Amino acid sequence: MTEPFILFGEQHTQALTYSFVIILILSVLGNFLSNKMQEFAAKLIGVSLLAFEATKPFIYIYGFDKPWETYLPLHMCNFSAVLIGIFLLQKKKNQMFFELPFYWGIGGATMALITPDLDFAWPDIEFFMFFYGHGQILLGIFFALAVLKYRPYLQNFWKMAVITILLLIPVLVINLIIGGEANYWYLMNTPDGESLMDLMPAPPFHMLGVAPLALVVFFITYIPFLIWDKTKKA
């Protein structure tokens, strides 16, 4: 019988540990590969990301009879997966396709893994797919950082922030058009599971707290590079 998901319970902490250890090991080992093998590994991760995002809605909707309104690939983490997947497959890489998922992924996917929007624990298939999907987003980002040696730049920070804020408008419109329980980017309601959004005002006013918090989280993810740049100049 499937047990209910328990935040920071044994299964959650084990899944977090395994996910981050695997990401760390692969990102370190990638540095010992030849340039050709690094590119091959990047393409494998990119294909996995895009294939997972393309098939996941069909698996949920047709395989597990989930409501289509809530399982379309329209969440921020879906966008992160697609962009970093395309980035890893590109021969001439687009910096924006790295920087947007850098902020969205490290902020969003990490938060998602720490506070999963799950009802049931393993062996529920959604438990596996949730950690696999979000884990490989972070793998793609850290592989690009640690192995391919890409990084975000401060001059692009506000551009990424403005793009994120502007995207709220079409995502909100999509939520309203779909109706029902559609809640992409959690604009209509807070996640079912426990999260920091529980500390915000009641929806839809929760976004007044979420939006500035997201910008703070984005900037925090950049701080290591800010420190590194200042150290190099010293």
UniProtKB/TrEMBL annotation:
Keyword Nucleus part of the UniProt annotation: no
Keyword rRNA processing (UniProt): no
InterPro entries: CHP02206_TP0381
Transmembrane segments: 15-33, 40-64, 70-89, 96-115, 127-148, 160-185, 205-228
Assigned keywords, A-Z: Membrane, Transmembrane, Transmembrane helix
Protein name: TIGR02206 family membrane protein
